[in-house]
Amino acid sequence: MHQDRIMPYDVLPANAPAESEKKTDPAEVETRASEIGKCNEGYRCIFCNKIYSRKYGLRIHIRTHTGYKPLTCKVCEHRFGDPSNLNKHVRLHVTDDSRYKCDICGKVLVRRRDLERHKNSWHSEKNDGNVSDVGVNGAT
Hints:
By secondary structure, the chain is of the alpha+beta class. The protein has helices at 26-36, 55-66, 83-90, 112-122, and strands at 38-39, 42-44, 51-52, 71-72, 79-80, 100-101, 108-109. A hairpin with a 6-residue loop joins strand 2 (42-44) and strand 3.
């Protein structure tokens, strides 16, 4: 099918023992792939050729190819590869008292900043931009 496509284990040294977990260890693949990806434009993903200005961005991106998810939610133990996705997820565990509800469409968000961003993105022509603290059930 995709014989020219690089597989995660292809970026590791050929002399790595086949039975070694290092041969397909996602953390090792992430490290090697981000080192190999250095180019004039920045850092290129060896799997899909997407270019990142920072090595860190490439490392996080490589996890989408390898499935490496080293980050864990302390509340429910759900695993994540991207720290920003973990942070968004953790906010789902807050109590109803600390949530903000859009008075236009009813969408519930965890942070005031998220509600402001939501209103600016989805309702900017429909409202005056005011954001009020509204409980999940509409209580103020």
